[in-house]
Amino acid sequence: MPQINENFLKLEKNYLFINIAKKVNAYKAAHPEADIIRMGIGDVTLPIAKCVVEAMKKGADEMGVKETFKGYEDSGAGYYFLREAVSGYYKSFGVDVPAGDIRINDGAKADCGNIVDIFGNDNTVLITDPAYPVYVDTNRMCGRNVIFADSNEKNGFAAMPDDSVNCDLIYLCSPNNPTGSAYTYDQLKEWIAYAKKNNAVIIYDSAYEAFITDENVPRSIYAVEGAKEVAIEMCSLSKTAGFTGMRCGYTVVPSELVVKASDGSEVKLADLWGRRQGSKFNGVSYPVQCAAAAVFTEEGLKQTRENIEYYKNNAKIIGETLDELGIKYTGGKNSPYIWLKCPGNMGSWEFFDLLLEKINVVGTPGAGFGKNGEGWFRLTAFGDKDRTIEAMQRLKTLKF
Question: How far apart are CA 113 and CA 29, in angstroms?
Fold first, then answer.
């Protein structure tokens, strides 16, 4: 009889959003007339930019012609035209990332989970709490020791390193999901110094970098000196360009990032990641990579920025409503997420039930992101403007 990986038995029985879906579906079955506004899952709602769609169509047409047909992509890292486009995008905000350090993926979530394959299971992993569940779950699936750095109201939900704590891997997300907080240059300098002191590697999720507006908040960790020696960065086009239904992103493993093996030899993590992906990842389809490359053209950036501004305006609408109601929150400025403190000392799931049952609005209970999320709640700006306004009008009818 085969043995199972019993680390899976230690996980929460259901993924957070499955639990939410069950509650919402049960409510809809009992109240079919309810007009439910969903502000929970961070899925985009606007269509993909027209120039991006045209590029994908062209790529698909090329697959139907012998002279331009594409089979396996030789490098396994993504077509070079896309890697160069991503490198150029970094340069547009002052960061030098060579195309050779970039690998194309099918979204940041997959690589955030799969990157653990190149690290031993004896590593201690430090994750800020609250956290995107993938960081925690994928490491617990391997049986690793997971410890937490507290993000809370006191520190603006931006946990900082504690020199008395030792670790090997560090997960950071900025702008943060779920809290919407974002690390400044100076704060990231501290994390980089801490990683060097511990000989640790930072796994940096920058999926929401396109929403950054503050000049003191870097769009990439590589904007900070020394980061290439300690950090792997992952980004996704899901939120930047609406690719949640197309799946494409990129991971940067700098050639400067070197660790020591047990025999004392130096190993480039880029080589290990390339070997892992070559064995276990089929790559991203050619038409989708053509579409992704179009995102980084002048017209593509213009059109996708229009969508981002639309979502930013939704965030502003939510924030202004919370200000009017006197409800504390973080996020909404450099992030599409608004992280609010549940009124009246309510628990996260208690507030979820209240919104669902009283005003038919769905959000995400903060408790699903870790212990420091209890008593907090996430709303997303990735909705329709009119529905966002309607949801906020409904919120104003509640008495807290």
Answer: 35
- Tokens at 274, concatenated: 């390339």
Distance CA 343, CA 322 (A): 11
Query: Given this model, what pLDDT does residue 174 score?
Result: 97
Question: Residue 225: pLDDT above 80?
Answer: yes
| Cα dihedral: 186, 268, 80, 210 (round 10) | -20
How far, in Å, CA of 44 to CA of 47, rounded?
8
Tell me: pLDDT of 5 over 70.
Answer: yes
- pLDDT at 74 > cutoff 90: no
340 neighbors 326 (Cβ within 8 angstroms): no
CA 49 to chain centre: 21
* DSSP letters for 285-344: -HHHHHHHHHHTSHHHHHHHHHHHHHHHHHHHHHHHHHHHHT--EEESSSSSEEEEEPGG
Q: What is the pLDDT of residue 16?
A: 82
Preceding peptide of 336 cis, ω within 30° = no
For residue 361, the SS3 value is strand
Domains and CATH numbers, the chain: 6-47+300-396 (3.90.1150.10), 50-297 (3.40.640.10)
**Cα–chain-centroid distance for residue 9?**
25
Residue 123's pLDDT is 96
Question: Residues 171-179: what's their mean pLDDT?
Answer: 97
pTM of the model: 0.95
Q: Following DSSP, what letter does each residue of 145-170 receive, concatenated?
A: EEEEEE--TTTTT-----TT---SEE
